[in-house]
Amino acid sequence: MTRGIIILMITFLTSEAAAETVAELHEKELNAIDANNDGFLSKDEFNAFSDYAFQAMDEDKNGTLGLEEAKPFLDIKQFQNVDRNKDSFISRAEYDAQMDEDFNTADQDGNGQLD
To answer: Are 41 and 113 in contact (CB under 8 A)?
Structure first.
């Protein structure tokens, strides 16, 4: 996976951009995430990539994202929005909750896949 794919997918961390982000994915990048090559991102494919992205950002492997780790991918406002308990770290639970919300926002027809 490339840094560009991570950056595009991490923009899901802003709910307003979730639907637009899928539309902006380049075909090559979509294909890298679309494990079964059906042209859609299923919830499972999205979750697998989300897991990969979190692990890639978590440079110190402590299970949280500090501002410095997230800075290449999120601006301060995005970071603060995901850091729901305001402890200056994004926990895995906070990250997963935001990614779930963003997937559901982008899945406008509720079919469990993004197209």
So the answer is: yes
30-45 pLDDT, tens digit each:
677 878 888 788 999 9
Give this prediction's pTM.
Answer: 0.76
Q: What are residue 90's phi and psi, to 5 degrees?
A: -100, 110
Q: Are 82 and 66 in contact (CB under 8 A)?
A: no
CATH of the domain at 50: 1.10.238
Q: Nearest-5° angle of CA 71, CA 107, CA 25?
A: 50
Range(s) of the domain holding residue 40: 3-106
| Rounded to 5°, angle at Cα 103 from 101 and 104 | 65
If one counts the domains in the chain, the total is 1
